[in-house]
Structures are given as structure tokens and as C-alpha cells.
Design goal:
The structure holds two protein chains of two kinds. In chain A, about 70% of the residues lie in helices and about 0% in strands. Chain A is an all-alpha fold. Chain A has one domain. A two-stranded antiparallel ribbon of chain A has the order 1-2. In chain A, strand 1 (about 20) and strand 2 (about 25) form a beta hairpin. Chain A is globular, with a radius of gyration of 22 Å. By secondary structure, chain B is mainly alpha-helical. In chain B, about 90% of the residues lie in helices and about 0% in strands. The radius of gyration of chain B is 69 Å and the shape is rod-shaped. The chains are: A mainly alpha, B mainly alpha.
Chain lengths: ~240, ~200
Amino acid sequence: MAANPMTQFEVYRIGPEIKLGSFDISFTNASLFMVISSLAILVIFNLGSKRNSILPNKIQLLAELSYSFVSKMISDTAGSKAKPYFSFIFSLFMFVLFCNMFGMIPYTFTVTSHIIVTFILAAFIFISVTIIGFIKHGFGYLKLFVPSGVPVVLLPLIVVIEIISYLSRPISLSVRLFANMMAGHTMMKVFGGFVISLGIIGGWLPLSFSVALTGLEILVAFLQAYVFAILTCIYLNDALNLHH
Amino acid sequence: MIKKIFFQLIFFNFFFLKEVFAAESGGMPQLNPEFWISQIFWLTLTFGTLYIILSKLILPKISANLELRKSQIQENIEAAEKQRESSEAKIKEYDEIILKSKLEAKNIFKEAREKVIKDINSKQSVLDKQIDEEIKKAEKEIQILKENAPLKINKIAIETSSELLKKLIGTEVNNSSISAIVDDLSKKKGNKYYGN
């Protein structure tokens, strides 16, 4: 059998050990791909925003299409009040998308396949949204847990359910992305291993499956970034426009 | 009390087992907390930098580019609209000019035709007159010739018959008697002397 399919998720130190107080903040392969993704985003969007012509060139078109795509996504889900958070959601979407996509290149490391990364992002979003909600609506934000039009008898139950669902948001948000990325990459690795172990005669079937999976995984990489961003928009919408 | 400790022991055993499993047998490297702090630190650093640069430098530029393009396109559309209107007005003018000139051309053509017809008519009448005169002249001449012809014929007839008689008989015949016969013949067309 080929190598353990989980070894691709192992984090290892690149270069010397760096300590900040008692914390180990060494540069690792995960850090490397975070830096690469960020740099790629910055380079592409910097090139895409440099020149302005009526007829945009390819890279400018890419940058502007992404801009209007995210802009439309935000205005569709969270309305015009979410405009100040555009930059954050744009950065978030692009960061997750590029991390996912870089992970699709063989022998690379997928940053978003680590629960700690997705959880930190989700927790940051959760805490920020909660703070924004309380700033915008004061204690009225707690009305989020009391849906209108619910019979009084059911209200205690509903409120408990609402609170649990609200508190589980960062977990569901982070686990969704992490589990999708991990499962996809593990599956690809397993099928890749089958190709080797079945050899030239039987290896064609898992190979074709692996090819199909690659396409699917690229779709998933985009879709999960999109879902991550759109759920952030929806949470933001709850905080900005209190509907309940 | 004992029960509680028992359950706690099971729980902690499970927890530690999992820890060991994650760290040693390479179950899920994600659950190995060795580099969690490092990942959090680098995530904050890279994502923070990305966010700051994007929001402060790049996104405003793209937004401005888009706005500029929008306004430019709007301006262009407006300019195009104006030009279209002016061209439509010009087309109207042009059409009017063409209509006018067509009418003028028609008039000119009509006038010219009438003039030519008049010219032709006048020339034709002149020619007709000339032809008539010529015909009349010719007719007169013919009339004269017609009138003169019998006399001359009679004369020739008299001369030839007198010559013939002279040769045949050998004597001179009186010209007046011959002329009387010739006159008589020419009037009666010879029926009396030739039998039919």
C-alpha cells in the first residue's frame, strides 16, 4: 500500500524554530502556502488594477469580474448596509479560494484543510458579527433568538434551539470547509494509491476516477470558498438587518 | 461517588487515547496541536496583511476603475445618442434637398421637353411648307410637261410619218394632211385605223 493518505496534512517546520515568548511560531509549510496564496492574490489584483482602459485586458477583467461577483454576492445577501465590510469579505473569499486552489496542485499543502485555520477564521467572523450586532441594535440584538409568530408555549424551546444554532455557527462554518477539503484530498490520495498498487492492468479505473475527482475537487474548492463567504454575508445580514 | 469517578476515568482515558492516537499513529495531523499557535500566528499575519493591502490600496483602485469606466461608457452612450440625433436631422435635411432637387429636375426636364417639342413642331411646319412648295413646283412642271407632251409627240409623229411615207412612196406628202390624221389618231387612240 502506498503512503498514508493523511501524511499530506502534516505540518512541518521550514527553517529554524522561532519562539515568541513560550509560543512556537516557526515558519511551516502551512505558513508558506498562506504567504504564497496572499502574494498570489496581491500580485493578480495589483496587476488587475494598475492600468485602466475602457477595454480591459485579461487580468484586469479577472480582477473586475471578481470584484463585481463578490460585490453582487454581498448586496444580494446582506443588502447595501454591508458595504463597509466588502473588503473583509472579498479578502476572505479570495484567501479561502486561493488556499483551496493551491491545495489542488500536487505536492502542495492545503491550508484550509486544517481545522485550526478554518476555526480561527470562523471564530473571528462569529465574534465580529456578534459585536456588530450588539453595536447596531444594543440588547435588541437578542431578539434574534425570539422569532416572531411563534406560539408562547413553544417559545422557551425555540429560544434554546435558536441560541444553540447561533452558538454552533462558528463550528459548522469551520468544520464544513475543513471537512470538505480534508475528505476530498484524502480521497484523491487513496485513489492515487490504488493506481500504484493495482499497477498497469487494474490501475486505469482508479486513475479515471482520480481524474474525475480532480475536477470535482476544483469545483468543491470554489464552492466551499463561495459558501464560506456567503454564510459570512448571511450572518452579517442577521446582525445588520434584524428581521425577527 | 465511585460511579462518578469511574465514568470520569473512562472519559479521560478516551480523551488521552485520542490524543495519543492523533500524535503517534498519524491519524489526523490536524488534531496535533504542535503547530496550532504557529498556524494562528501566520494566518493572522498573512490574512491581516492581505486584508489591509487589499482594502487600502487595491480595492479602491478597482472600484474607481469600474466607476470611471461606467461613467465613461455613460458619456459615450450620451454622445452617441446626440450624434445619432444630429445625423437623423441631417438625413431629414438631405432627404428634403433630394426631394427638392428631384422636383427641380422634373421641372427642368419638362421645360426642356416642351421646348424641344416646340422646336420640332416649328421646324416640321417649315419643312412641311418647303416640301409643299417643292411638290407644287414639281406638279406644275409635270403639268406643263403633260400639256406640252401631246404636241411634241404629234410633231414627232408627223415628222416620222412624213419621212416614212417619203421612203415608202418616194413623194412628198403634205404635212398638214399628215398632221390632221395624227391629230385624229391621237384623239381617238388609233381605234379607227387599226381595227381594234
